[in-house]
Amino acid sequence: MDMENNFNYVAVAHESEAVKAQFYKKTYANLAIGVLAFIVFETVLLNTPIVVEGMFQLMGMGRFSWLIVLGAFMGVTWYAQKLANETVNKPKQYAGFALYVLAEAFIFVPILYVAMQMTDDGSLIVQAGILTLALFGGLTGVVFGSNANFSFLRSILTIGFFLALGTMIAGMIFGFNLGLWFSLAMVALASGSILYSTWQIKNEYAADQYVPAALSLFASLMLLFWYILRILMSRNN
Q: Does the reported pTM lie above 0.85?
């Protein structure tokens, strides 16, 4: 969250109740729009054979192919977050948000396609979606229903994400399966990220930063959905 260039920055926690309510409404409305946009993008991509075939061909090019995809995704993520953290330019913020949602839709193509093939009715995806939203709602309630300070999670999450990234890269290079325990650990990490992002929304973001706030929540939500889906898929094998 870029606050350094906003000299009039005031955390929403210090605003009036009316301003807080409006900020929360805009943040979660934008999050909902992001989820709907993801569903639309994903539906189009999954029904575009050249995209599906291209993603699987890229994955089949060798153990380093998915590493390239991951690197490209991280680059797009960095740029999208940079755009979304523009403090005054709303079109740039929304462009960054849209770019990130589209990047997530592309990276989700292989796992969702496989999940769809595992059940005729797509029930695995529906189950993962319900579990993700239920856990997200519970974590959100914990933050807004208490005065707990979750700022301590920042350093834990930073270390955790670097360890997770290192483990994934090692798995790609040496060709070992990360397994169920890694997915469970990533669910815990994503849950911590939701707690921290929600705490930031409650205490640190400014009232006009609802777009980057929504993007932060969306990123954590998608990470949680990915690994809950992986767990369900592993149990269905």
A: yes
Is there a domain that residue 7 lies in?
A: no
Amino acid at residue number 89: N
Tell me the per-residue pLDDT of 27-49, one tens digit each, with 9 for 90 and over: 999 999 999 999 999 999 999 99
Hey, is 11 helix, strand or coil? strand
Using alpha carbons only, give the angle 104, 184, 67 rounded to the nearest 5 degrees. Answer: 45
Half-sphere exposure (Cβ direction) of 36: Cα atoms closer than 13 Å: 6
Hey, which residues does 206 pair with through a beta bridge?
A: 11
Is residue 9 assigned to a domain? no
In this structure, the number of other CB atoms found within 10 A of the CB of residue 195 comes to 19
Q: What is the pLDDT of residues 125-143, one digit of tens each?
A: 999 999 999 999 999 999 9
C-alpha closest to that of 68 among 173, 210, 182, 152: 173
